[in-house]
## 1
Amino acid sequence: MPTLAGMRRRGYTPESIRLFAERIGISKAETWIPFSVFEEAVRDDLNPRAPRVMGVLRPLRLVIENYPEDQVEEFEAPFFPDDPPRMGSRKVPFSRVVYIESEDFCEVPPPKFFRLAPGREVRLRRAYIVKCVGVVKDESGQVVEVRCTYDPDSRGGDPKDGRKIKGTLHWVSAQHSVPAEVRLYDRLFAVDRPGTTEGVDFLDELNPNSLVAPEDSRVEPGLLGVEPGRFLQFERQGYFSVDPDSTASRPVFNRIVTLKDTWAKIMQKAR
């Protein structure tokens, strides 16, 4: 069961725990508090103090065919996009080959999929607009590489001709990014109220995906050597803490909470 030591190791802050306690108040009656209430308190605490960085958890290789092979650029990226002067910025390297999230590409996109697909343009955050012109597949038919071209006049992510680009993806340079261990923690139980269903052992209600550790995760080079205990927001991924298991050559990150309450949608689909 959760303990305060375990919660702190994952990255929950004392402030978020106290904020949660203040919000639920005190009652003499036995009540169930949705876990989402606690998660929202964690987000509210971390949002104003967790610097934004980029990490790709399940990388897909993206090659920009018309980008010079030996060229490397750097883009200025603020730690707090809504308030750049508050905590400064860092330089993010960009090269011909980058990694994007594998889920950000779909060969046959469903409706309202605004990310990358054949013939479609997306914005690489703070970099350029790219267009998918082909894919490379392995022997099993799985896409292992996306081939793109870029618009040189779209540096910074905005096209000069004013055309609308709906999708914006985070990325890391394949040449400069560093490998990282990322531990994606989720809820311990797969139901809202474990142990309350007659005839069902609460152990059978454990969530088999309460901890997932993707292979080959990559993060921007500035996170190499980051000290344990720091809080970060991986853009589009969630809030993370740096685990004490981190080493000088391989950082380890624990996901504290996602950016949105995705559990409600999962439970709604299951009903």
## 2
Amino acid sequence: MLKIRGYGLQADKKTLTLTETHADCDAQSEYMNEGCKKADAAGIPVISIDAKKKENIGNFKNNGKTYQGHGNPIQVLDHDFPLKGLGKVTPFGVYYMFKNQDFVRVGIRCDTAVFAVQSIRKWWYAQGKQSYGTADEIVITADCGGSKG
């Protein structure tokens, strides 16, 4: 009945805000974008960094879907409490903007500034150095939350 009436399964969409957008938001974004383009043109690597939601380590339910035989779903724990001795992981991403490449490092400790710096360092030796081995600076964009503050 619902399908006939135009209903379907949909994910939530983040559109509501509790605060007003800052008046200079577009100007600030354009200023940063132009600075990033100039740095790239000058041969300076430009990356964006971000830590993602911490995840429990273990056989927990995820919101995605996988192909499985009919009636044979993957068995997961019946609760989402962290398992003693395993804890959580923090994925930290370095996005190499003008090459459209990413680098993800997963840490088992806190989302700290040290972890952020070490992730950037690991990215440099794994990917950045090959393209910009002689660079003596890097432009980094971040939202300044958590470890990036």
## 3
Amino acid sequence: MNGGSTAGVRRTAHIDLSAFRHNLGALLAEDENFVLDARADAYGHGAAHLIPVALLAGVSTIRVSANQASIPGIKRSFLMTVPSVRRNLVGAWAYGLEGNATPVMTLSGEVVAVKRASAGAGVSYGYTHRLEEDTTLALIALGYADGVPRLASNQTSVLLRGALRPLVGRVAMDQFVVDCGSSTPTVGDEAVLFGDGGRGHPLASDWAARTRRSALELTANLGSRVARVAR
């Protein structure tokens, strides 16, 4: 299945600033001296978006990577590039990646091609998946070049047209395929890889477990083609 060029398509990580503030408020209520772990560009969430929010919320110390210490408008006195040995270092919970915290990131990709396929047809390169019945396939413009783990091949699902659809076949460099069954999505539809379970999205923690990594590693490895859009 070839969707042609994917230049200019939507690859978006929506960053929910209100969810981030909510998580920080809960953390500060328990420990007002915790250190926010914002290394690796806030683990892929966009430190330039989140650090000002954290400072306004009352977070006093933020741990960053060495190459992040020059974020515009941020006083260096608030940032630390060495480990804290005496204070609680918090990352995953602040970003809503564990426990009952609210997820901050929603990762989505655009449907760039749709086609009907017959039972027995192989999907993606190597044909690691063969269709058991006639179905509709949708091509999503996100791939391992964007940080979608190759181990997600035949292992995960996305939310598309109000239902969870299985990812079938191998994840390619720029795209992957989902099986839509009797549903027929439209080119331009949004497929959500992970986000807020309260909205029916798959969870980043589930994607992480199925691809043998932590949720922080999953989000931190998202590539530069994925636009971080704060809202």
